[in-house]
Design brief:
This protein is of the alpha+beta class. The protein has 2 domains: 95 residues; 200 residues, no CATH class. Strand 6 and strand 7 form a beta hairpin. The protein is elongated.
Length: 307
């Protein structure tokens, strides 16, 4: 038996493999978000991973089987064709895995916002100088009362990605030039008057990022330094809360996200301990009437943003 190398089939196979590998990578990066979009009994993210994983393994098996046939029955240029074929697949794999990390929750929210109000998307091709964020009039609003100055600047998660709310708007943190670090009692007094915990959690409209943004803004306006905290869990899910650097108890973390629909205690403000590798479980600060929070996950990492 004599076999010949068909470069047309090689091209088509490499393209199919590259597309499958790229989709597999995107699904892997957003598996938690995909699972959350459907019934808990139907983990779509894991199903897609298995589906595309099977096709990738099948493709690799068929390629290896072809190598065996080629070296056994190939007519000429056995080694040359084999090396060229390997190089083609190395190129395909490099291109497929070099696709930027597509954060689907933020991308979906940005697309919705663009359709509704022509807002800019989450990922920008050109990133402004971070030093200009608080000096460009497009990036902050300035309010002056006597000698107090309150500015509002974009929250950048990294050099090319900024945080957005549930409806796709850009998260902005306020900075009060006269703000101070509060005492623990002053934090409690502020939370009792702040009404953020009375808002309803609505997916794709008002989520944990919006709660954290509103608390941070209100605290700065009230004269207290307050941080926005971005949290990642080990299951790739994310969350946001706030932090105060109190003068008597040090750094404390406050979670005001109200995810209870039509129920819960009168005051939903919580305190939570955040440590890498520990369980994230908010505890109500005030009388909860018997209500309590379930663990949200294991903390993989967190970042505190003061401005």
């Amino acid at each position: 038996m004599t076999v010949y190398w068909n470069w047309k089939l090689t091209r088509d196979g490499a393209i199919r493999f590259g597309l499958m590998l790229m989709v597999f990578s995107i699904v892997y990066q957003n598996v938690a978000w995909l699972n959350s979009k459907f019934l808990p009994q139907l983990p779509v993210g894991y199903i897609l991973l298995i589906y595309f994983g099977i096709f990738i393994i099948r493709h690799v098996y068929r390629v290896l089987k072809w190598y065996s046939v080629w070296f056994k029955y190939g007519t000429r240029q056995k080694l040359e064709n084999f090396i060229v074929h390997l190089c083609i697949y190395f190129i395909v794999i490099s291109v497929a895995l070099s696709v930027p990390n597509l954060n689907m929750p933020r991308l979906a929210a940005a697309i919705t916002a663009t359709n509704e109000s022509n807002k800019i998307p989450v990922f920008e091709s050109e990133v402004p100088d971070l030093n200009s964020i608080i000096t460009d009039s497009k990036d902050f609003d300035l309010i002056e009362k006597n000698e107090t100055r309150i500015t509002s600047s974009t929250l950048w998660i990294n050099y090319n990605t900024y945080a957005i709310g549930g409806d796709g708007h850009i998260i902005k943190l306020k900075q009060n030039s006269s703000a101070k670090n509060p005492t623990y009692q002053e934090v409690l007094n502020f939370l009792q008057t702040d009404q953020t915990d009375k808002c309803n959690y609505v997916l794709d409209k008002f989520v944990c990022a919006d709660f954290a943004e509103q608390v941070q803004n209100n605290a700065e306006i009230a004269g207290y330094n307050c941080a926005y905290v971005d949290i990642s869990f080990t299951d790739n899910a994310g969350h946001a809360c706030n932090a105060f650097n109190t003068t008597d108890r040090g750094l404390i973390f406050i979670d005001c996200t109200n995810s209870l629909e039509g129920g819960g205690p009168y005051n939903g403000d919580c305190i939570v301990n955040i440590v890498k590798g520990s369980i994230y479980k908010p505890q109500y600060l005030f009388n909860s009437g018997g209500w309590y929070n379930l663990p949200m996950g294991t903390v993989k990492s967190y970042t505190v943003y003061w401005d």
